[in-house]
Amino acid sequence: MENIIPKVREFKNEEVVTYSKDSLEYKSLMAEYERMENDFIEIPLVIGGEKIYTGITKECTVPHDNKKIIAKYHLASKKEARMAIESALNARKKWSKLAWDERVSIFMRAATLASGPWRNRLNASTMLGQSKTYKQAEIDSAAELIDFFKSGVYLLCKMYSEQPISTETTWNRQSYRPLEGFIFAVSPFNFTSICANLPSAPAMAGNVAIWKPSTSSAIYSNYVVYQLLEEAGLPAGVINFVPGNSSEIGDVILKDRNLAGIHFTGSTPTFQKMFKTIGENIENYKTFPRLVGETGGKNYVIAHKTADIKLLARGLRDGAFEYQGQKCSAASRAYIPKGIWDNLKEALFEDMKKVTVGSVKEYDTFMGAVIDQKAFDNITGYIKYAKDADDAKIIYGGNFSDEKGYFIEPTIILTDNPKFKTMEEEIFGPVLTVYLYEDDKFEEILYLADETSIYGLTGAIYAEDRYAIAKANDILENSAGNFYINIRPTGAVVGQQPFGGARLSGTNDKAGAMNNMMRWVSPRVVKEEFTK
Ligand code: NAD
Fold first, then answer.
1. Can you tell me which atom of ligand 1 is nearest the CA of 212?
2. Quick one: which atom of ligand 1 is closest to the CA of 186?
3. Host H or E run for residue 176
4. For residues 421 and 424, what is the distance between their CA atoms, to the nearest angstrom?
5. Is 60 one of the catalytic residues?
6. How far apart are CA 320 and CA 428, in angstroms?
7. How far is the CA of 199 from the centre of ligand 1 (A)?
8. Smallest Cα–Cα separation from 507: which of 320, 333, 264?
9. Which of 294, 322, 409, 426 is catalytic?
């Protein structure tokens, strides 16, 4: 090992490429899209660096062109889950001892590759597999992914430099050990960058991981991420790529004695299930597993009567409908004073004209398709429910078709019941429900919004009146881990708005921030005495 304390550059966000229609960047992105669209690949498990084809397979279809199959992926069963545990623990012997600057060099290299030659592959695979527009793909699979890798390096450097004080005759030192065991990283379908970060953050800190991607066509971009890490030099077995049937492989992995932590992003019921399994098995672990989970949301927009109408309309449109409402932070319930509703409705409906639905291959598409048939059925179930309800009506959109792709129109529901089903439950699709309140009942509405949902992820207040903003900031303190003033509740940027929520939105360890990195280490303090 070399004698070195390397300097790490302050973290700076990756610049987002804007892709004007005639730009070379856009043309080369779409050329990559078409190359991938016309190709067919087989996605293996990768355990200990070895590709495994189990023969139990599922297909990756393109959500906005749902007869188009772009890949077939193999699924692990219990046997491969056991192999992955063994391989991870084996890799741990060398990886956990490797000097940190050597370790993080791999992720710095991955960030550089993602920023350059791999950018199109990452973005095109995310457009194809998750139906993101070029804009939504760029902020996710390029910019945020790069930010996660770079900020991780910076955070580790900061963390390792944090040392206890010493006296004249003692020297106290603190090391940040990787956890003793392996990490189970379980990722959702909606953000390629989150998927990349779930196994990578623990790995940067010296841990080994088993990465189970979402059983959906998101596996397509996730495999590109895995290949990127391989190209950047990640040693075999440090991250094992293990798509599989959740309950089957989860059962083996969650009960394993060497499970040291879970890094999860997905729905609340899934995390609760995993938490429960771990609780039931608590006597059998070598160490208390760290449970880090970022889960669902039912995010609100509350307008005060002094709200700027244009800003509010834009915030509702983008907050609710970008990426088909499939962001965990998406606005899905709005509380609007009756006095501004007519003007707001006019501005919002005008803005909504730009929310075109279609293939993300078209430059002007605002919304692609939702991820799969299951999501389509679930979301349209809520729309049908609203159509049949006496206390709600659909005032915008409401149509859908799964014939060519899983397309759902951006839908706005107006209800006079503040506890209407779609005001309370996470839908995870392009559906916004609006409730109108008497202009002078602002404070009551803040309390109502606070107690209406089990979640506490994001929320936004729109007001020009500073007292109203301050009141909302105070009353809504526990309703959102990320609170926004006069801007939509989506679009958190690594390093700028550390992201995560409490209540049933997760453990709020703030992905990409120090709180999160601290969960993947176990500090060890050494005191040495120099006797006179
Ligand atoms: P999901 O819960 O259906 O799946 C998440 C992952 O868990 C997938 O890999 C899935 O295969 C796996 N899984 C399911 N059951 C399991 C089990 N019993 N054992 C082990 N693994 C299991 O979620 P999703 O549909 O992929 O993602 C959407 C959800 O994610 C929404 O609720 C959204 O709010 C949430 N989300 C939250 C954040 C955040 O930062 N808070 C970010 C993105 C998404």
1. 9
2. 9
3. strand 170-178
4. 5
5. no
6. 10
7. 15
8. 264
9. 294
This prediction's pTM: 0.97
Name the token pair of 344.
Answer: 């707001």
Parallel, antiparallel or unpaired: strands 392-396 and 411-415: antiparallel
- Residue 14 falls in the annotated catalytic set: no
Question: Residue type at 211?
Answer: W
For residue 265, report the distance from its CA to the centre of ligand 1, in Å: 5
Q: What DSSP string describes 93-161?
A: HHHTTS-HHHHHHHHHHHHHHHHTTTHHHHHHHHHHHH---HHHHIIIIIIIHHHHHHHHHHHHHHHHH
CA distance 72 to 284: 37
* 357 DSSP assignment: B
DSSP H/E element including 279: helix 268-280
Burial 270-285, CB ≥16 within 10 A → b, else e: bbeebbeebeeeeeeb
Most informative mutation of 198, 246, 370 for ligand 1 (most atoms within 8 A of CB): 246
Active-site residue identified among 60, 157, 195, 328: 328
Q: In whole angstroms, how large is the CA radius of gyration of the chain?
A: 24
CA 109 to chain centre: 22
Cα(264) to centroid of ligand 1, in Å? 7
Q: Which amino acid is at 104?
A: V
Averaged pLDDT, groups of 10, the chain, 532 residues long: 84 98 98 98 98 98 98 98 98 97 97 98 98 98 98 97 96 98 98 98 98 97 98 98 93 97 98 98 98 98 98 98 98 98 98 98 98 98 98 98 98 98 98 98 98 98 98 98 98 97 98 97 98 82
Neighbours of 252 (CB within 10 A): 18
Mutate to test the pocket of ligand 1, among 214, 245, 272 (most ligand atoms within 8 A of CB): 214
